[in-house]
Amino acid sequence: MLLSCIMVVVLILPKEKRFKYEYEKGKVWMHSDLVSPFNFAIEKTPKEITADKKDAIDAVLPVYKFADRITAIEQEAFKIDFDTKWKAKFQGNNSRSKNFKAGIDLIDEFYKKGIIELNNHYQKKKNADYYLTIVQNNVATNVNSSALYTPSRALDYAKAKLNKANDDIEQGFLLDIIQDHVQPNVIFDENLTQKLERESEESVSLYKGMVQKGELIVAKNDVVTDDVYKKIESLRKEYEQTGLFSGKREIVALGQVIVVGISLSLLIIFLYLFRKDIYNDYRQLSLILIIVTGMLVALSWAIKIELPSIYYIPYCIVPIIIRLLFDARLALNIHILVVLIAGFFVPNGFEFTFFQITAGMTAIYSIQNLLRRSQYLVSAFLILLTYLVCFAGVSFIHEGNFSKVEWIHVAPFVLSVLLSLLAYPMIYLFEKLFGVTSDITLMELSNTNNPLLRELAFKAPGTFQHSMQVANLAEAAIYKIGGNALLVRTGALYHDIGKMRAPNYFIENQKKTGNPHDELTYEESARIIIRHVTDGVEIAQKNRIPDAVIDFIRTHHGNTRVDYFYQSFLKNFPDRIFDEQVFRYPGPIPFSKETGVLMLADSVEAASRTLKDPDARSIDILVEKIINYKLEQQQLINTDITLKDIETIKQIFKQMLMSIYHVRVEYQSAGIKLPEKEALES
Asked: What angle do CA 69, 70, 74 make, to 5 degrees?
């Protein structure tokens, strides 16, 4: 599985050679003197290219063409309109020819010089003129729009000239007709203008200046200034994108095998040393390797398609999924290893590693104890806040100026955080495919409105109340000694569901009218009591309860005896030969902190119900007796509970039991004698 994972990752990773220097703008160059090994051009920054293209487009003058057809149409229309209106208004007036000549001369002058409608796009301010290119008879001429008439300018000019004419000129009559026939004949050619703008934009050079072979780019201990940074960036791109340096792709691939192999091997070693339960479970191990491989494949894909920003990839999805499916320590370990691998293949690897590790740690810490669904959104907000703070810090280091920080570059982080929310539906898919249990599922199962828990509360109300108290005890203890509190609480709520099949045979559900065990032999009673474990497993499996919760049902009594019936049998039949296993639970014994704590909480809570007059001393003796008995029976040898943890658990149980029974220590009398026998096993 490990070799397959390494092979897939190496095959998909880009095989270009990597620039061996790490550098940042504004930082000291810590390497030896960097001398150019060949001639190369200095690339402009995207910002510079954008500015140059804008300048190139602005330098293109808008193109206009004379529309001779409009001139001819309007001149002929003026003549017809003049004749018609003159006859209707001034029949018999002998000044017709003078008026006609005055009007047609103005029309001819306007259309000969040109009438233009100004374009708002090219006006720098309202009513401002601008330079343009006029094409007439395939000859282009650059003029200012002020040299041409606009419809309003033409009318103003006509009014001023007619005012100076003699009395025979009908000024109002002519102005009305001229106004109707002043139309722009210098027409904007949008297609030709856009074509020229595109050609000008495409002609913008992507480079500015050259660096000659042997030229010193930056000396050791010099500060990487903006100009030096551009030169180094240009050299790096030339190095990675061309074959100017000697080297073979096969050797690059070998290096990737070593880097990826040692990183993933360390992950396997970690699982072997600290999480053997996962190491020995091929389903869980394959799930982890699939998640790791999937993220590295996504990264390689983003590099190959040249995604505008590598930070669009939701890297925090890995620690979120691992944390919710497993634990925080494993999530942090995997996240760091995956980010370290990625750092070899992305630009500015150190900066990328810093961003992703800090955001991943925030993701893990923010969902350390998942209790509400709203924590998903809180976690997303904290991850985004971490990205923004880190971006601000790095930008201040690079630019040294608040005003130069380009906040638009935080957009990839926002999208990345939104994509990270896909972790939650993916977790559901992984749970179904690989049989693991997340905190999300545990949170749903621990809701007391769950149908199975409601059935337990209806059929065995005493057992339900007992389970609630056990859940409180176990959860408080596991919080203190460390462990999955949500898992132990869920396991406690379901550990006795097998009692639903015969609730009256367990003391917490019995009524005062009688004890059904009085009608049975000791062996039959023991079998019924023991059977609640196997019945519980069967009920849980039928209701598709996860194995992680079913483990609490299997182990909460370990392989201990049902001592009350066992001792009663020995007392009444001392000489009879019998099989002791009849009185012993099938096991297995607890194998984790959580299952071990539940066993102790279950026994202590059940035994505390036998106290007739609970006080501080009786509770103290009871807790010590029950827990020490479990230790003597070696029920906790497969758990990682330490002696220090045992003392902590005892203190928590004592404090909580005293709170439950409202014990006031200072008023208790001494010498209370505990019952000689415990209640029927819960």
From this structure: 120
Q: Indicate whether 77 pLDDT > 70.
A: yes
**Other CB atoms within 10 Å distance of the CB of residue 38:** 14
Backbone angle region of 93, left / alpha / beta, with phi > 0 → left and psi within -120 to 50 → alpha = beta
63-66 and 131-136 beta bridge pairing: parallel
Helices assigned H by DSSP within 275-410: 276-279, 282-304, 317-325, 328-343, 349-366, 374-399
Query: Measured between alpha carbons, how far is 586 from 584 in angstroms, rounded to an integer?
Result: 6
Letter string b/e over residues 175-208, b meaning 16 or more CB atoms within 10 A of that residue's CB: bebbeebbbbbbebeeeebeebbeebeeebeeee
Distance of CA 662 to the CA centre of its chain: 47
DSSP E strands in 101-258: the ranges are 131-136, 139-144, 186-188, 207-211, 216-218
Cα–Cα distance, 644 to 650 (Å, whole number): 10
Cβ atoms of 492 and 467 within 8 Å: the answer is yes
- Residue 672: the pLDDT is 37
- Condensed to tens digits (0 to 9), the pLDDT of residues 239-257 reads 766 654 455 777 878 888 8
Where residue 621 falls among pLDDT bands split at 50, 70, 90? very high
User: Is-contact 209 137, C-beta < 8 A?
Assistant: no
Distance CA 14, CA 344 (A): 11
310 class by beta-carbon count within 10 Å (0-12 exposed, 13-18 middle, 19+ buried): buried
Q: How many whole angstroms separate alpha carbon 615 and alpha carbon 658?
A: 7
